[in-house]
Design brief:
signal; 1 helix; 6% helix; Lipocalin; 26 strands; mainly beta; 4-stranded antiparallel sheet; 3 domains
Length: 333
């Protein structure tokens, strides 16, 4: 039993270090706002959790839609205890917070906050009951959310199998969750830019593919999303054509994504798609590199390569932090 609680403590300590290094942890899932028996569901909300000690953390809730729009707010120093079965419990507690709306400060007075974080499936379940400003009636907000894992690495991009390009640093958001008895995955493809293509500097916008399911034959989580009704924004400048429009994926062509793992870490994200009436496909291959502080070189970056941040955005010489040059990470001070 002592070894078991030591393991729990070590796991929590690792999570704490991760939060301190990378900021608040993000969780996403379906939520519901209830007041006077009227329920307002939301398909996807995002909450943030940031540890401040081994027994307390700050939780940031999203803006909520109900009888009135309540802006995002943060509850500080939410206490929790570490229990068995990899579950952390936030016992019922009161809370308070303040928000500013149109230069007016409004109070949030909470009569109840309860929640659990299950480390086995990375789910965070929360329920809060509170009054907002001068509203006479209490509101109840509940959410079951799952951890959003961010993975960063260069991607190789092939257009039509003939023209090959690269972006030195792209960050995907990956979320595993349970849908009944089935484990599923959502993947948010970020905005990224390909420089000097035949169509000029091409920027492909973000979109989220939902409901990937593990495919044993393919060796990873897979989805054919050509009929999902997704759209994304494309901008091309300085080349053979100028584009600045939203595009749908061509339902007559291959549009699919495959996410592979090595142990608990994402190793590959392979995405093949064809947009609108474009005559050729685009294939992107994300291959994870060693991540973490050990993969960052604390030295002056040299060379003529372009410099990107971890979101794949081109940055200038005044940028401070971790940068990627020619596929390698450097700590720029």
């Amino acid at each position: 039993m002592k070894k078991f609680f030591t393991l729990i403590f070590a796991t929590m300590l690792a999570s704490s270090m991760s939060a301190q290094m990378h900021g608040a942890l993000k969780f996403s899932g379906a939520s519901e706002m209830a007041v006077m028996g009227q329920n307002t569901p939301c398909e996807s909300d995002t909450v943030k959790f940031e540890m401040v000690s081994m027994s307390a953390g700050n939780i940031t809730f999203p803006a909520m839609e109900g009888m009135a729009t309540i802006p995002s707010f943060t509850i500080e120093n939410v206490t929790f205890t570490k229990g068995e079965n990899h579950v952390i419990t936030m016992a019922e507690q009161t809370f308070s917070a303040k928000v500013t709306v149109n230069n007016e400060e409004k109070s949030i007075t909470g009569s109840s906050l309860t929640g659990t974080y299950n480390m086995a499936d990375n789910s965070l379940t929360l329920k809060v009951v509170f009054k907002y400003g001068k509203m006479p009636l209490p509101l109840t907000y509940s959410i079951k959310s799952y951890y959003i894992k961010e993975v960063s690495s260069p991607i190789a991009v092939s257009i039509g199998g003939m023209m090959n390009y690269e972006n030195a640093g792209v960050t995907y958001q990956v979320r595993k969750y349970m849908d009944g008895e089935t484990q599923k995955m959502d993947v948010t493809v970020p905005t990224y830019t390909l420089d000097n293509t035949v169509m000029g500097n091409m920027t492909l916008g973000t979109y989220t593919i939902k409901g990937l399911i593990y495919d044993e034959a393919k060796g990873g989580f897979y989805r054919d999303y050509k009929n999902d009704g997704l759209k994304f924004h494309v901008v091309c400048k300085g080349g053979s054509m100028n584009m600045d429009n939203d595009y749908s994926f061509n339902a007559e062509k291959d549009n699919n994504i495959l996410v592979k793992y090595e142990g608990s870490k994402v190793s590959d994200i392979i995405n093949r798609f064809q947009m609108g009436a474009m005559p050729f496909y685009i294939s992107t291959n994300f291959k994870a590199v060693t991540n973490g502080i050990g993969a960052v070189k604390s030295q002056t970056a040299k060379g003529k390569g372009k410099m990107y941040n971890l979101q794949g955005q081109l940055v200038g010489d005044n940028y401070k932090g971790v940068v990627i040059i020619n596929g390698k990470k450097f700590l720029k001070k």
